[in-house]
Amino acid sequence: MGDVVGVAVVAAVLTVSGVLAISIVSKVRTRASFHAFADAVTGLQVTAPRWSRPAAVASIAAETVVLALVVWPGGAPAGLGAAVLLFGAFAVVLARAVRRGSTTGCHCFGPTSAPVAWRHVVRSGFLAAASFGAFLGTFALPTVALASLDPSQILLSISAAGMVVTALVWLDDLTWLLRGAAHPR
Hints:
This protein is an all-alpha fold. It has seven helices and no strands. 74% of the residues lie in helices and 0% in strands.
């Protein structure tokens, strides 16, 4: 049982880390991508328009700090606890925008023309839940880490995390492919 939980905890940590890393890079890779994200902050009515750029910077900084804590040796419990709060806040912001009928894209993983939808709220909620599960796992198995697993468990953890990260990052494209929803790009 401990092996299964250890693999699940490591896969969740890798998922959270992967999503945060891709999210950060997608928002700062070019000046245009940052400005598109800051404009989305305005469109989602997170803050007053004059505060959209500082709020965007704060969001990216928070993601960066959480990622650093999650991957820092010994920092995973604090980082995962912070990830629960971060993804929970994202879910709340997105839910409010969906309820208002916002046509702004979330820009979570780069520029998109797809308006925020409940699937984005669910994605953030899933990430909060995965972070919480991994947070609990770090206390149940305090010595579990990628290096503590045997090679087959490492492969399983990385494969599972890779599939989940891919599905979460390409959620709009998968929705379009499977349901014919409006294409986001």
